[in-house]
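Below sits my pick:
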Amino acid sequence: MGDLRESDLEEVLGLKDYEDRRVPILQVKKPALPTRRSSTDYHSARNGDTHEVYVELRELVMDEKNQELQWMEEARWLQMEENRGKDGTWGHPHVSYLTFWSLFELQKAFAKGTVLLDLPEKSLAGVVNHLLDRFIIDGQIRRQDREKLLRTLLLKHSHARDIEALGGVKPAILTSSGDPSQPLLPQRPSLEAQLFCEQGEGITEGYPPPGILEKILQNSETTLVLVGRVDFLERPVLGFVRLKDPMQLEPKQEKLGQPAVPVRFLFVLLGPEAPNMDYTQLGRAAATLMSERVFRTEAYLAQSKKKLVHSLESFLNCSLVLPPSEASL
C-alpha cells in the first residue's frame, strides 16, 4: 500500500471520470489547455460547445431596511466555494462538503423536476415565463400560483456589497398574499459561515479576494441557482434550464467586484418551510454539482432529462460520506 500512487487510488475509487456502469455514457477526454478542438471532441447536437462555469447561489431574503423580498448572493463557486458572511464579506475559499440529506433530497427533486434544454430566450423574464408554464404542465404548481411566482422570480437581485445599504438581510418566506414573513422555525448560522466567515478570513466591503476576476477564464459562463421558501407550495419544485445562447443577466459591473459572466444555466428550487428542510443546503448541493467537471460536461451535452438524472445518480455513487466521530473532531 505504501507504493500506491494517487492515480491508482482514484482508479480504485472510480473517481477519475465517474459513471454509472449500468448506463452507457459518452466518454469525454479531458482536453489539454489550450488546444484546437478536433471534429471528434464533444460531439453532440449542440456541436460540443462546453465552457468553464462560474456558479452563484442566490437566496430569497428580506432586507432589514425596507422589509422587501429580494434575491441575495449566498455563496459562489469557482472550483472552490466561497460563502457570504453577515456583514457582506466573503469567507475563505474552500472545498465544498455536503450533507447526505441534501444530496438525497436533490436527487428526488431533480427526478420529479422540470428540465428545459436549449431554450431560445434572451431575457430572464422570458426564461421564467417558459419555466412556469412547464411547471403547470408537469403538475408541479397550480395555475393560480403562477403570477405570484412570476413576480417573485423577477424580484431585484442584490449583491454582497449591498448588505450595508440594505441594513442587513434575514431569512424570509413568501406567503400567499405576496407579502414576506419570517420563518417560524429557528434559524442557526450555517456551518460554512461559522467555519469560513467568522474567523477574520473575509475581505471587507463585499469585494472579492484580489485576483478572483482574473481566475475566471475567458469564455466562461454562469450557472445561477435560486432557492427560496414559499408557503403556498405543497412540495418542493425544481426547474433546470439550459439556454441555447448565454444571456447577460445584469449590466457589466467589474468595477464593483461583480463578474460580468453571461448566464447559460438556471436552477430554480422553491418549496414550503418544513422541519429539517434547509433550502440553502439544497442550493449548495445543486451549485456544487454544477461546479463539478464531469456533471458540468454532461449538462452541456445532454439531450434529455433522463441523461441528466443518470449523471446525477453517478455523481452520488461516487460521493463519499464521512460519518460523525470523535476522530474527525
Summary: The chain is about 30% helix and 20% strand. Residues 20-47, 199-208 have pLDDT under 50 and may be disordered.
